[in-house]
Structures are given as structure tokens and as C-alpha cells.
């Protein structure tokens, strides 16, 4: 079936709640059929952003476009988007079938059409065997699937997902992450996925937009963001464990750096070598196949668990200049 | 002190109160229902005579019918009013606190004072309600659309309507409960409905009403019990059980007259017991219907 081009474009979107600036001039562009993940810490404005696109909040300034339509001023239902809520927002008094059909029934679609599309959507997310159950009889993962089916059944121009995986246990979350990726490929529609979980962002997104304090700090592919973070915030936010930051003075034993800069190096690029800069091993955390080695000098190294040192011993460290990032000490901006 | 003792100690004042003021008098009353007792001489056992007399007492028949008709009309209207008010006032807007207070205030006015206010409001000649209805009337005694305004306190049906109208403003408790219930409903459900293009009526019918139904049913039962007793003060203060002979004589007033004016305490007690049984029967019937209805309507967490 031919589908209209339906990217999402935001230009200079601002939103204030009283004195609090929730969105401070957002420019963002999710291409047609793209899965764009918006990630940021709590309170960065990412959920507000999604609610503005859905029309649940009115913007103070700026323009929101879906496809070739300016939807800034039109009511939520006319924007033709589907939203999946963190709490799933399933109707407790309706069966799975009635929940999925809700959007079609209130739009008074023909009964046969509703039946066929509910069957199709429920099959797609694997809840076709649960249609006569009620939400309280479902597990968290199943509820999430029903919420997704309800979004899919309408065939909207775009999907807005507000932290859809945060209420799931760790195992189910990983499973649903893969499921979302597969669904996106099969449905081939624009999806905007909001999360605070940087791992989810890195594994799920075609591209990622990192937000902080109502602004978009950087937009790019997961590789771009991980390998060339444009500022210290993005560098610190993405990656586990967080990137090491060394002052110019602390960095000098490893690589030559100017005054007024901060050196960033990811834990996997801190090498333990026989002959290097001496450091004492403080704490060693083992996470399966790898280990996080906390050293004095304010560094954390990620090494294979089989090659981990013993706590309290002394090791040699080396950092390859090619693996480092330089940031301005005051502005936090990347220096090439 | 053990937990059990602590709980018992804390419950004690309440239990003593309920026992002394409710349970014991109720038991005594139920006992007296089978006696003849004029509050002066000691009661004498008469078996079921009182109930036989009640069955043949036309006035009791009228009182019972009046009470049931009142409840049948007033309870749905009171619930609809409380629900409407709750849905109207659950959003935040300037002055909403004032409106909410106004919804509750009539409920906390002392009943006698409330009755006296309505006695003035309903006065056919100088009462503000009929003054308003006669405003721009064709003649001094008719309304603008040419009919006589209701004779609130002198025409039987108008008087019964007056008592119902009075009851429609004492819905503060139901209003507060429904307001809190509505505010407890998840906002996302309504946001989803907005995105899915549900109309206001659709939202009410498909979301609000079903989700509030359990509380509404509870209030329905509670209000029914309330309504079968509430008529006492209005009937006593506003209409004096009339217009003659017994247009607004409800069971509570019937009981009061028999007990304290005619000194037929045993007879009044039997009427009370009968009313209790009728009330219990209605509540039981309602829960049976509700249970069957709920089988296809489980609201779980």
C-alpha cells in the first residue's frame, strides 16, 4: 500500500511551563521511515517534546510538520499519529481486542474492517492468542505488545513512543527492544522513540538525538555520537561505564594537552600494559566477560575479565592519542 | 502491649459508641416491634399483631409508597447531579475552589435550617422561586407562558416534587467522592482518547462512566439508604406531611407521629423494622444484579 511521506520536522520549538523553560528552541528532523531515538536525563524535556508533537501540549513558538503538513495548531486527532505511553494506557475495562480496536471504533470504521485490522495488528506483535483477555490478566511485556498493536492498527503517519520499555523488567526490555526494531522494519513508518536509557538509544536508533535542559545537544547515528561526541555532556551521557575525563594536568603523563582543555577517554581505551604510567588498582567490578577496573588517577578501565588485575596491586597504563577526545574546559565543546 | 490489645483499645471508644447508641437501641426497637407500648405502661407482648395492623393500615401504605417513589426518582437524579458536578469541576480553573465549596455547603447546613430556607423559597406567594416564575407573567398569578406556577406546598404532586427538589442540593458527599474518583483516573487514558479522536460523549460513555461505575454503584446503595430516611425533616418542617391528608407523609414521619404523638411506640417500632427489611431487600437485590453485571465487566488493577 502506498504510504505518504511522513517525516517529522521541528523548527525553533519553544515551550514554557510558567518560569520553567521545557523546550528551548528545538530543531529536529526525523526522516520518513526513520527510527529516531530522543535520549536524555530526567527533566531534559524529551517527553514534553513528544507531547508537543502529539498535540497534547501547545507550543509557545516554532513549527511542527508531519509529512508536508504544518500541524502546529491542529488538534491531536487530526495529526494522525499514534502514541504509546510509558504506562501503556490500556483501558482496564476493555478486552485486548477492544483495546486494540479503540481508535478504529471511535472513528466508526466498518466492523469487518476493524476485525481484519485487529487480527493483522495482533498477529504482528504476537498477541493474537490473548484477544479475549483483560489487561490485568497480562504480563508487563504482553501489555506493552497490546499497546503497540493499538498504535499499529490505525496505520498512522508517525509513531510516538514515550519510554515504552521503562516499566519492563530487564529481560523483557531487551526482548521488546529487538521486537521494536523488527516492527519498525516491517511497518516502515517514522518512529520517534523517547528514552532516558542510553543503551536503549544506542541499540535501537537509526539516529539519536541527545537532549539536555530543553535543548538538542547532538543528532547523529549511534556510531557518530559514540565516536565523535560534540560536547562533554554527550560524551559523558553515552557509554558504559561513563567516559573518563582528565584535566590537562592529570592527562599530561599520558598524552600532551594544552592548558584549558579536558581530555576524554573511554574505559575500553585505557590500556593496562607492563610498562606504562603507574597506577594503583582500587576496585575491580566483574560483569560477565568484562571487568571495570577503578584506578587512582580518577580513571576506569574496561578489560576482559580474564585479564583483570588484583585489587590493591600496581599496574601500568597507556592511552593512545588517537583514542582520546579533547573538550574546552569552560564551554565543554569538542576541540578537534 | 500486644498489637491485638492495642487495636482493641483504639477500637474501644467507637465500639462503645456504636453499641450504646446504635446496636442496643436497634435491638430494643426490634424487640418492641412485637409489643404494645405507650411509653408509660410497661410493654406487653402481642406477637405479630402490629404487622397485621400495618398491612391493613392505609396510611402506612401511602407512606411506604411515598417513600419508595421518592427514592426511585430522587436517587438517580441525585447521583446524576453529583456526577455532573464532579465532571464539571474536576479540572483546575480560576475560582474552581469556590464552585466546589458551593457544591458541598448545602449538605453541611443543619437540616432544620435547610428546611426553613426552603419553606421560604417555596412559598407560593412571596417565595423567590415563584416570584421568578411569575416574572413577566400575563397576570400577577401566572407565568410568562400563561400557566399557574406550581403550588409547592398546597398541591400534592407539587409538594412531592418540592421535597425531591430539596434533596437534589444535598449531594455534597457524593460529589466529593466522585470528584476524587474522577481525579484518580489516569490522564493518559484521556490523552489517548484525544489522539484517537473520541468525542466528548464517546469519552464519557467508553471511558469515564465504565471506570467510575464501581464507585457509582456503591454510592447508589448508600444514597438509597440515605433517601429512605432523609425525608423526615423536610416532611416535618416544610410540608408537615401534607397537603392533607398524607401527600408527603413518608415512613420516617409516619413512625415519628405514631411513636411520639399517638404514643403507639410498639406499632412505630414494627414500621421501622419493616422499613429496615425493605431497605435490606432492595440493597440485596441491587448487589445481585451488580454481581451478574460485573461478571462481564471486571475492572482489575
Number of helices of chain B: 13
Order of strands, widest sheet of chain A = 6-7-8-3-9-10
Backbone CA Rg of chain A: 23 Å
Largest sheet of chain B: 2 strands, antiparallel
Chain pair with largest interface: A-B, 26 and 22 residues
Low-confidence parts of chain B, pLDDT < 50 over ≥5 residues? 296-301
Listing every helix as H and every strand as E from the N terminus to the C terminus, the arrangement of chain B reads HEEHHHHHHHHHHHH
Q: Can you give the mean pLDDT of chain B?
A: 87
* Beta-strand residue percentage of chain B: under 5%
Percent strand of chain A equals 25-35%
Number of strands of chain A: 19
Give the strand tally of chain B. 2
Helix share, percent of chain A:
25-40%
Salient structural properties:
heterodimer, A: 336 residues, alpha+beta, six-stranded mixed β-sheet, five-stranded antiparallel β-sheet, 9 helices, 19 strands, 26% helix, globular, B: 301 residues, mainly alpha, two-stranded antiparallel ribbon, 13 helices, disordered C terminus
Summarize the structure in words.
The complex is a heterodimer of chains A (336) and B (301). Helices cover 26% and strands 33% of the residues of chain A. Chain A is an alpha+beta fold and 336 residues long. In chain A, the strands form four sheets. A six-stranded mixed sheet of chain A has the order 6-7-8-3-9-10, sandwiched between helices. The mean pLDDT of chain A is 90. Chain B is mainly alpha-helical and 301 residues long. Helices cover 71% and strands 1% of the residues of chain B. Chain B has 13 helices and two strands. Chain B has a two-stranded antiparallel ribbon. Residues 296-301 of chain B have low confidence and may be disordered. At the A-B interface, strand 6 and helix 2 of A face helix 9 and helix 10 of B.
Amino acid at each position: 500500500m502506498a504510504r505518504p511521506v511522513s517525516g517529522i520536522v521541528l523548527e525553533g520549538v519553544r515551550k514554557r511551563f510558567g518560569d520553567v523553560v521545557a523546550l528551548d528552541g528545538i530543531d529536529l528532523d526525523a526522516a520518513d521511515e526513520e527510527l529516531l531515538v530522543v535520549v536524555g536525563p530526567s527533566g531534559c524535556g524529551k517527553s514534553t517534546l513528544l507531547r508537543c508533537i502529539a498535540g497534547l501540549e501547545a507550543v509557545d513558538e516554532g513549527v511542527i510538520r508531519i509529512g508536508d503538513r504544518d500541524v502546529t495548531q491542529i488538534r491531536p486527532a487530526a495529526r494522525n499519529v499514534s502514541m504509546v505511553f510509558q504506562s501503556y494506557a490500556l483501558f482496564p475495562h476493555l478486552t485486548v481486542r477492544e483495546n486494540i480496536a479503540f481508535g478504529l471504533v471511535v472513528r466508526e470504521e466498518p466492523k469487518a474492517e476493524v476485525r481484519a485490522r485487529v487480527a493483522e495488528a495482533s498477529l504482528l506483535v504476537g498477541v493474537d492468542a490473548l484477544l479475549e483477555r483483560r489487561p490485568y490478566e497480562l504480563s508487563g511485556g504482553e501489555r506493552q505488545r497490546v499497546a503497540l498493536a493499538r498504535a499499529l492498527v490505525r496505520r498512522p503517519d508517525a509513531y510516538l513512543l514515550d519510554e515504552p520499555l521503562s516499566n519492563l523488567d530487564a529481560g523483557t526490555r531487551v526482548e521488546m527492544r529487538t521486537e521494536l526494531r523488527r516492527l519498525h522494519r516491517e511497518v516502515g513508518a517514522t518512529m520517534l522513540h523517547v528514552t532516558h536509557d542510553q543503551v536503549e538509544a544506542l541499540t535501537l536508533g537509526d539516529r539519536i538525538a541527545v537532549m539536555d535542559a530543553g535543548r538538542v545537544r547532538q543528532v547523529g547515528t549511534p556510531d557518530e555520537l559514540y565516536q565523535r561526541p560534540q560536547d562533554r555532556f554527550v560524551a559523558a551521557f553515552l557509554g558504559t561505564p561513563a567516559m573518563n575525563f582528565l584535566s590537562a594536568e592529570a592527562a599530561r603523563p599520558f598524552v600532551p594537552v594544552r592548558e584549558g582543555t579536558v581530555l576524554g577517554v573511554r574505559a575500553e581505551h585505557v590500556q593496562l600494559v607492563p610498562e606504562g604510567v603507574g597506577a594503583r588498582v582500587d576496585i575491580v567490578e566483574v560483569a560477565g566477560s568484562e571487568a571495570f577496573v577503578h584506578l587512582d588517577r580518577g580513571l576506569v578501565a574496561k578489560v576482559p575479565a580474564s585479564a583483570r588485575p588484583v585489587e590493591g596491586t600496581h599496574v601500568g597504563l597507556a592511552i593512545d592519542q588517537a583514542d582520546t577526545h579533547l573538550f574546552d574546559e569552560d564551554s565543554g565543546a569538542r576541540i578537534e | 502491649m500486644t498489637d491485638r490489645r492495642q487495636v482493641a483499645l483504639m477500637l474501644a471508644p467507637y465500639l462503645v459508641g456504636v453499641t450504646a447508641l446504635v446496636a442496643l437501641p436497634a435491638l430494643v426497637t426490634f424487640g418492641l416491634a412485637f409489643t404494645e407500648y405507650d411509653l408509660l405502661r410497661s410493654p406487653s407482648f402481642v406477637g405479630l399483631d402490629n404487622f397485621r395492623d400495618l398491612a391493613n393500615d392505609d396510611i402506612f401504605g401511602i407512606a411506604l409508597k411515598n417513600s419508595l417513589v421518592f427514592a426511585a426518582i430522587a436517587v438517580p437524579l441525585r447521583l446524576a447531579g453529583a456526577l455532573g458536578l464532579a465532571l464539571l469541576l474536576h479540572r483546575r480553573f480560576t475560582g474552581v475552589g469556590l464552585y466546589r465549596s458551593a457544591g458541598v455547603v448545602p449538605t453541611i447546613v443543619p437540616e432544620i435550617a435547610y428546611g426553613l430556607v426552603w419553606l421560604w423559597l417555596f412559598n407560593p406567594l412571596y417565595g423567590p422561586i415563584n416570584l421568578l416564575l411569575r416574572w413577566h407573567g400575563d397576570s400577577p398569578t401566572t407565568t410568562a407562558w400563561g400557566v399557574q406556577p406550581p403550588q409547592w406546598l398546597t398541591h400534592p404532586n407539587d409538594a412531592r416534587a418540592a421535597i425531591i427538589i430539596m434533596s437534589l442540593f444535598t449531594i455534597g458527599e457524593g460529589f466529593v467522592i466522585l470528584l476524587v474518583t474522577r481525579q484518580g483516573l489516569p490522564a493518559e487514558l484521556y490523552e489517548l482518547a484525544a489522539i484517537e479522536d473520541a468525542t466528548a460523549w464517546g469519552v464519557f460513555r467508553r471511558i469515564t462512566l465504565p471506570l467510575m461505575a464501581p464507585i457509582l454503584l456503591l454510592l447508589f446503595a448508600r444514597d438509597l439508604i440515605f433517601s429512605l430516611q432523609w425525608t423526615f425533616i423536610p416532611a416535618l418542617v416544610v410540608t408537615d406531611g401534607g397537603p392533607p391528608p398524607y401527600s408527603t407523609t413518608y415512613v420516617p414521619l409516619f413512625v415519628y407521629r405514631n411513636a411520639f404523638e399517638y404514643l403507639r411506640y410498639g406499632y412505630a417500632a414494627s414500621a421501622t423494622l419493616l422499613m429496615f427489611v425493605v431497605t435490606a431487600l432492595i440493597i440485596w437485590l441491587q448487589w445481585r444484579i451488580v454481581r451478574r453485571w460485573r461478571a462481564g465487566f471486571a475492572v482489575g488493577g
